[in-house]
Amino acid sequence: xxxxxxxxxxxxxxxxxxxxxxxxxxxxxxxxxxxxxxxxxxxxxxxxxxxxxxxxxxxxxxxxxxxxxxxxxxxxxxxxxxxxxxxxxxxxxxxxxxxxxxxxxxxxxxxxxxxxxxxxxxxxxxxxxxxxxxxxxxxxxxxxxxxxxxxxxxxxxxxxxxxxxxxxxxxxxxxxxxxxxxxxxxxxxxxxxxxxxxxxxxxxxxxxxxxxxxxxxxxxxxxxxxxxxxxxxxxxxxxxxxxxxxxxxxxxxxxxxxxxxxxxxxxxxxxxxxxxxxxxxxxxxxxxxxxxxxxxxxxxxx
Length: 302
Fold this sequence. Notes:
This protein is of the alpha+beta class and 302 residues long. It has helices spanning 11-16, 30-39, 85-96, 113-120, 140-146, 158-166, 168-174, 194-198, 241-250, 273-281, and strands at 2-6, 43-50, 53-63, 68-76, 103-109, 125-137, 154-155, 179-182, 185-188, 203-209, 212-223, 226-235, 261-267, 285-286, 292-300.
């Protein structure tokens, strides 16, 4: 078995390791996001190969000035599942980044039984958790057509986010755990992370109402389940939330304008009335069968 650094030209080999419909219950974002991820300055990909065939894969995201190591998009060939090959690859990457002071971070949902067992056994320290609510949209084009009111939310560009991170009062209100969870990646409030937050096509919006701040970050991707829009919510939910949704819809890729879409809202309070009211106003249906929590946990590398 050999270990190799994955290059952008390895797209088809990586995806051949495991069918996307078998990964994350069909919500595998890697086919749609591979080129953006592997081109990122903070991400390195590694594969384990047997007889020149890739059989396991893992992305490693170096965050927070390289002090945090986040594992992403891991997978192993079904034929080699349970043989320890993925664990061997994981040990290889862990050893590669096993430098003093580095911290290993895990970002996962409640369906990841292995990491949930580690969390319950206190082998990891919980950093933050977010409720995840799912909604279904038949066509966001129709929603925009029926809700043509102009929005007054501010697009938060990197230079603005830098000022937010710098303000102790504002950042503590928006990001009480000292991290911004965006498209499943937990970023500490460091200037070096700001280009990484925007590198995946994320749009960040902000509004200020009666002394309270609301910031939302939206990122969409295609997967086996269709078009998925991940909306991360920070700060105080208020009546402007519905305008945030509409403005995010206006910024979406025109290729998916008429397609059905699933919205996954990541927030601290899934029962907040402003979310319920906004979705009701836009006639967006909640998936009552969907229940999930997204966790971020850390463990020292040893």
